[in-house]
Amino acid sequence: MESGAVITTERTERESSLGARRAGVARRGGLPFTDVFGFVRLSGALLGTIALITALYVGATELQKKWFYRDTRRAREAGGLSV
Q1: Alpha-carbon gap, residue 34 to 21, rounded angstroms
Q2: What is the 3-state secondary structure (H, E, C) of the chain?
Q3: Is the model's pLDDT at 56 over the cut of 60?
Q4: How far is CA 23 from the centre of its chain?
């Protein structure tokens, strides 16, 4: 016994496009609208270079702080500076 009801699965072009875009984001794990703005994935070498530069920057900053505050630390240890 068929009731005569027809279920359609047709979608408009816009709905299909958005669905495909969302599926692409889930599949690739990327950001939404990367295709609209023309973004591409960064290479592993570039990401490694960015990580290395960041680590060197943090290390250099810490060394600079130690050098800059060395007199303050010595004075505090000698009892000549109270905070």
Answers
A1: 10
A2: CCCCCCCCCCCCHHHHHHHHHHHHHHHHCCCCCHHHHCCCCCCHHHHHHHHHHHHHHHHHHHHHHHHHCHHHHHHHHHCCCCC
A3: yes
A4: 20
Q: Is residue 36's pLDDT more than 90?
A: no
Direct distance between the N- and C-terminal alpha carbons of the chain, in angstroms, rounded to an integer: 90
- C-alpha 25/C-alpha 33 separation (Å) is 9
In this model, does residue 49 exceed pLDDT 90?
yes
- 5 versus 77: which is more confidently predicted? 77
Which residue in the block uniquely carries the two structure tokens 């810490």? 62
What is the largest distance, in Å, between two alpha-carbon atoms of the chain?
A: 98
pLDDT of residue 62: 97
Q: What is the per-residue pLDDT for 83? A: 57
